[in-house]
Amino acid sequence: MGNIFGKEKPLKEQLRENKRMITRAVRELDRETRALQKEEQRLTIEIKKMARENQMKAVKIMAKDLVRTRQYITKFIEMRSQLQGCALKLQTVKSHAAMVEAMSSTAMAMKKMNKAVDVPAINKMMADFERENMKSEMMQEMMGDAIDDVMENDEEEEDRIVGQVLDEIGIDMSEGIPNAPEIGLGAATSNGPLKDDGDKVAIGVGDGGGGGDTSGGGGGGDDPALSDLEARLNNLKR
Questions:
Q1: What backbone phi and psi angles, to 5 degrees, belong to 203?
Q2: How far is the C-alpha of 157 from the C-alpha of 220, rounded, in Å?
Q3: Which residues lie below 8 Å from residue 178, measured CB to CB, with a gap of 6+?
Q4: Cα(31)–Cα(75) distance, integer angstroms
């Protein structure tokens, strides 16, 4: 009905109709082939029967009919094979058409996707990301330097306060603390430690063993280093 109004049928519809026609023709050929094979069997039986009855003219006529039937059976088989070949070619064409349609749809989809993707916008976004990343790294580095500077200032402030406290109590860290004088074990044992009024122990020094009672600064009057140390201890007590 589509051709009557001048409208061409789609390719799929044409392939479907041609395949249907070929299938119908193959079915008819199979039916005719089966009928001819039954006729062949019947003629074979009749020929044997006529031969037993010695009817040679009928046998010759039926033999010709049998040969003709067998020839038609062979032709039908050949025609069926040709029709099957045509059906396979139509199936191949249909597969090619489906592949072309799929490729066309894929190409259209890819074209739409390519249009949707804005390459300059992506490049701009990547450049913005790189710039912001560099800013973030610089900010982190600046914050780290600032924290290090603050910590260094804290250490300097601590050192300044410690120095001020030591100055207030009369101790200078730049000067080394003098070493205690070495005293013989025998002299220390013989003389014995003496305590002053400030609960500090004064050790008697002497070559001979005769020490006497000592007061706060009497035991080390001859040693300037020991006198200086005793003076500093008195300052700490105040």
A1: -100, 125
A2: 39
A3: 225, 228, 229
A4: 14
**Pair of tokens at residue 167:** 């100055």
How many other CB atoms are there within 10 angstroms of residue 226's CB atom? 19
Q: Using CA atoms, how far apart are residues 219 and 214, in angstroms rounded to an integer? A: 6
Give the Cα separation of 84 and 19 in Å (integer).
10
Q: Coil, strand, or helix at residue 194?
A: strand
CB 43 within 8 A of CB 65: yes
Q: For the segment 2-53, what is each residue's pLDDT rounded down to a tens digit?
A: 455 557 777 778 888 888 888 898 899 999 999 999 999 998 998 888 888 8
- CB-CB neighbours of 144 under 10 Å: 10
Positive or negative torsion for Cα 221, 222, 223, 224? positive
Question: What does the pLDDT read at residue 41?
Answer: 92
For 43-96, give the secondary structure using H, E and C. Answer: HHHHHHHHHHCCCHHHHHHHHHHHHHHHHHHHHHHHHHHHHHHHHHHHHHHHHH
Task: Give the pLDDT band (50/70/90) at residue 71.
Answer: very high
